[in-house]
Specification:
Strand content: under 5%
Largest sheet: none
Distance between the termini: 46 Å
Number of helices: 16
Radius of gyration: 20 Å
Helix content: over 70%
Amino acid sequence: MIGLGSMIGAGIFASLAPAARAAGSGLLLGLGLAAVVAYCNAASSARLAALYPASGGTYVYGRERLGAFWGYLAGWAFVVGKAASCAAMALTVGSYVWPGQAHAVAVAAVVALTAVNYAGIQKSVLLTRVIVAVVLAVLAAVATASLTSGSADAAHLEIGTDATAAGVLQAAGLLFFAFAGYARIATLGEEARDPARTIPRATPIALGITLVVYALVAVSVLLVLGPDGLASAAAPLTEAARAADAGWLVPVVRVGAAVAALGSLLALVLGVSRTTLAMARDHHLPHALAAVHPRFRVPHRAELLVGAVVAVAAATTDVRGAIGFSSFGVLAYYAIANASAWTLTRAEGRPARIIPVTGLAGCLVLAFALPLPSVLTGAAVLLVGAAAYGIRHAVSR
């Protein structure tokens, strides 16, 4: 349930259109490729989480298996990648709630949820279940309306000459954004009963269910909009409802997308600020960010900084750019996870060698297949992080 709550959310509302612009009629191929890479990443992370049942994810695995620098770089990639995810979620709220003022709504959403987090209010387990139920109901309604519509055309699913290998790879990198929440399962190693057994079983089940849901939604939306219509849609599921002659569903989809995106944004801002706190305590980021508010007991400086960065990103970028940059950072994070899993011995529960190899290669290929601005910006930010680590290390020595 935690895995589903982390994956089935606003990602599917946001990533279909950018992926369709990249892959055209090869969209479903990109979805399948993204799922394969996600499974390898999740399997590697699950084995590492069973061996190191401590909060921190690849920040811990990279440090323990590859060295302090790689752990730091994983944490840095996570922070910058997930900060971009926050901007993408905020822009998703704006695109569905008020398309004409998407950036203004996005900034307002970031400010509001930063204030909520500052006050120490967190997304509860009950709220997670409610959000998952709402999102699944909305996705099911859109799929049913599209599949039963007279405007559905099976020819829209045919793969044409517009689908290129480069386009499919780029679409897979963008769609990876919608799967990225499965790491939440692996990071709960300290809280799971029998993590060595539970985590490796929960991960593929959650991924499998998510893939089925995403595939059903992608097929149904393609049937009524076609690749070109989907590629040009600002709010794909809203446009699919209109094309299926289900106008009554449009406000329902808008509410569902807003609920999903706000829930994801609340959790993401919370997670990024806590990772920032942990890295500040380890002096990988300015130590002033490690301060905890005396009344609300939250890392208030880290939350304010994260909120400000995300607000600026939401005001100045578009959904495709935010998703591309986020995917680059998160793919770099999982590349380090797969490299860490490769170093495991058989006695430590090493997965089949093909899993970390495929995961590592897949992460690198998909990362550099993303839109060029996302690759250049993402690589530059990672280099800045690496340079900061080198300077700090040299000064401390």
